[in-house]
C-alpha cells in the first residue's frame, strides 16, 4: 500500500523551488508514496498543475494575521486525519509551519526540512525571514533529516548553525526529453523573433536585485563594442518593457536595438535552442535550474561563481566573478569568437554532463531512497 507523505511548501508560484517540487511529484512512484501538498499561501500556477496529477493541494492562505495564527492548527488537523508516514518541509517558512503543525498534532511522524535557498548572510534577508532562518537553524538538530539542493547551501547553512545527523544534498534534476538540442525549433523561433543570423546571448531570470540584470546589460554594452551584431534576450517574470528600471538601463547603455525583453515564458526549452550562449549574472544562487536547462539543450554557458555554478558548468562554459560586468563580457566574447565546431564541442560536453549527473529520473530515485530511510525513524530526540 502507498505510504501517505506530506510536503509543506511556502508557495506554489513559478520559482525554481516550486518547479522542482512539481517535477518530483510528476515522477514519484505512486505505488510507494501517496503525496499531499500544503501551501502556506495560494495554489498559484504550479498548484494547479500539481492537482492535475491527482495530488491534493491544501492552501492555508497565510496573507492575513488571523490566517497566520490559524495555519498551524489547520495543519495539525490534517496531520491527525491522514496519519502521514513522513512530512517534508520545502523552504524556510514551510519548514517552520510543518514543525508547528506536527507539534500541535502531538505527532511523532518523521519530519525533514528542505532548504532550497542560497545563504550569503542575514544582512541580505528581510527582517522576518531572518527570524525564520534562525528558527530553522535552532530546530534543525531535532529533525530526522535536512535536505539541501547544493553543496554550497549545505556548507553555508552549516556555518550559520544548521545541525543534524542526516543533512544531505540532492541536486536539482532536469527532464532530458523536454530539454534537449532541437535546432529546428530554435531556427523557427529565431525567424519568429526576426533575429536572422545574429549571435544570440540569453539570460533567463526573474527581475530581482540578486539576479544581476544591470550587470548583464553592462556586459552587453561592452560586447556590442566589439560585436555590434549580437542580440541579447532577457526572459523572466518582470522582464518586460513595462519595467521602468530595465527600460532606463537599456536606454542609458544605448541597447534599445540590441535587447529583447521577453517576459515570463512557458517555452524555455525552445528559447534555449535560440541561444548561442546562455548567461547567468546572479550575485547569489544555490543551484540555478536555468544553467542545467541550457546545458541539457547543448548550449555553452557563462555564469558567475555563485552557489554550485562552477561545479554545474564545469568544462562546458566559463565562470566569472559576480558583480564584474567586464569579466562577464570577456567570457561571452571568448565563446562567441570560437568557431562553430568549438561551440558545438562545448555544447556536447554540457549535455553529456547533465545526462550523467542531473537526469530527473535519477534525482527522484534519490528522493525515494531518502524518504524510505526516514520512514520509521525513532522519534526519541524530536522536539
UniProtKB/TrEMBL annotation:
Keywords: Glycosyltransferase, Transferase. Gene3D superfamilies: Glycogen Phosphorylase B. Coiled coil: none annotated. The keyword tRNA-binding does not apply. The keyword DNA repair does not apply. GO terms for molecular function: glycosyltransferase activity. Transmembrane segments: none annotated. Residues 15-177 form the Glycosyltransferase subfamily 4-like N-terminal domain. Its EC number is 2.4.-.-. This is Glycosyltransferase.
Amino acid at each position: 500500500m502507498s505510504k501517505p507523505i506530506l510536503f509543506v511548501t511556502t508557495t506554489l508560484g513559478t520559482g525554481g523551488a516550486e518547479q522542482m517540487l512539481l517535477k518530483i511529484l510528476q515522477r514519484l512512484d505512486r505505488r510507494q508514496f501517496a503525496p499531499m501538498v500544503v501551501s502556506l499561501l495560494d495554489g498559484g500556477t504550479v498548484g494547479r498543475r500539481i492537482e492535475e496529477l491527482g495530488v491534493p493541494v491544501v492552501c492555508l492562505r497565510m496573507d492575513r494575521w488571523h490566517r497566520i495564527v490559524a495555519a498551524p492548527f489547520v495543519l495539525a488537523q490534517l496531520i491527525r486525519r491522514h496519519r502521514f508516514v513522513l512530512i517534508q518541509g520545502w523552504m524556510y517558512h514551510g519548514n517552520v509551519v510543518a514543525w508547528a503543525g506536527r507539534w500541535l498534532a502531538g505527532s511523532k511522524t518523521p519530519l525533514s526540512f528542505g532548504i532550497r535557498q542560497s545563504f550569503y548572510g542575514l544582512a541580505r534577508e528581510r527582517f522576518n525571514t531572518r527570524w525564520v532562518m534562525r528558527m530553522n537553524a535552532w530546530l534543525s538538530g531535532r529533525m530526522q533529516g535536512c535536505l539541501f539542493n547544493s553543496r554550497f547551501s549545505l556548507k553555508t547553512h552549516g556555518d550559520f548553525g544548521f545541525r543534524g545527523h542526516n543533512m544531505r544534498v540532492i541536486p536539482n534534476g532536469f527532464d532530458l526529453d523536454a530539454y534537449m538540442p532541437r535546432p529546428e525549433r530554435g531556427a523557427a523561433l529565431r525567424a519568429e523573433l526576426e533575429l536572422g543570423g545574429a549571435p544570440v546571448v540569453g539570460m533567463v531570470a526573474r527581475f530581482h536585485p540578486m539576479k544581476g540584470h544591470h550587470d548583464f546589460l553592462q556586459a552587453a554594452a561592452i560586447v556590442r563594442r566589439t560585436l555590434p551584431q549580437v542580440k541579447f534576450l532577457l526572459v523572466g517574470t518582470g522582464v518586460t518593457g513595462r519595467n521602468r528600471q530595465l527600460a532606463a538601463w537599456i536606454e542609458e547603455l544605448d541597447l534599445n536595438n540590441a535587447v529583447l525583453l521577453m517576459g515570463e515564458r512557458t517555452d524555455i526549452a525552445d528559447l534555449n535552442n535560440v541561444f548561442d550562449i546562455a548567461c547567468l549574472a546572479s550575485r547569489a544562487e544555490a543551484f540555478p535550474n536555468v544553467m542545467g536547462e541550457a546545458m541539457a539543450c547543448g548550449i555553452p554557458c557563462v555564469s558567475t561563481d555563485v552557489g554550485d555554478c562552477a561545479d554545474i558548468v564545469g568544462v562546458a562554459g566559463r565562470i566569472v566573478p559576480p558583480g564584474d560586468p567586464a569579466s562577464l563580457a570577456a567570457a561571452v566574447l571568448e565563446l562567441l569568437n570560437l568557431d562553430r565546431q568549438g561551440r558545438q564541442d562545448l555544447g556536447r560536453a554540457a549535455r553529456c554532463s547533465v545526462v550523467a549527473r542531473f537526469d530527473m529520473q535519477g534525482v527522484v530515485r534519490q528522493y525515494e531512497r531518502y524518504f524510505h530511510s526516514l520512514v520509521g525513524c525513532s522519534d526519541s530526540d524530536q522536539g
